[in-house]
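User: Quick sanity check before I run a bigger batch. Here is a single chain. Can you write out its predicted 3D structure?
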Amino acid sequence: MGEGQIEAPVGYTKLKGDASSRSYFRGRGHILVKYPADSGESFDNYLFWTERYLRAGIPVPKILRYDKKRMEMQLEDWGDTDGVTWFHQLSRPDERTAFVRCVYEYIPLIQGLSAYEPDQKRINLKWELDFFLKHARDTIFNNLDIAWLEFLCREIIHVLENGRWVLSHRDYHFRNVLVKNGGVCIIDFQDTRLAPEFYDIVSLLFDNYLDLKGIAAGIEPELDAPELRWAALQRNLKALGTFAWFGYKQGKDWFRESVPLAMRHVLSHLNVLGLEAEAEKWQKLMESSLFPDQKQE
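Assistant: Done. Predicted structure follows.
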């Protein structure tokens, strides 16, 4: 939810943004979303996928009204409690596991929407990893030598491009889940497109905002399968690029808080994949970069 320069209309309260160019405001019983004038495709995608998600039984905010000329829409208000906050409010381990499983079980329904993607749009793995290399190099890694990571990224792309691809939410983590009155709602789904088979699964179970250590293995039986860990490696590196860009270059400091967990996830994937040399180099990066205290537990 973007924090543009648009002021709140009369009767609305502006909401805190994150990595989007959209602006969000809370009104009486609804959320007003304002899109930049050049975001027609994103606007249309939101309309398109809202209908398909709801038809498949996937809970997303209902569109109450929209105006394409004004580039704005009113959405059902699901409140401010995201999945990370809700998880921490649950006191019992079985409650937490049940909540994670509930969100996880929507993934097959999302994959089943593939018939609605006639253009077969795919995520661009190379772009995502190039973005990571460009923006993490001079921020998170303090201009340390990461040439070896360029070779690793090429290997990740090779492995994933030759695997199975399915329709994916593309940003399926617990901050994109809202909880209200015991029900869950999925948000930020407008960029739904084809991705490596485990993309949404690893985005959720290796969430950069919520450490699910001790729970994830009980949810996904193939958690240590090589094809899953390659996807997880790509996803967490991609996220580090996002955190570098927004947290260090766009002044949104709260993105920095998620860097240590993402780095620990990457180390775990390298170890499970048996990439011992790369794991050792990554460990040294963790010890000598901006987070010298983030050593393997």
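The chain has eleven helices and nine strands.

User: Great, the batch can go ahead then.
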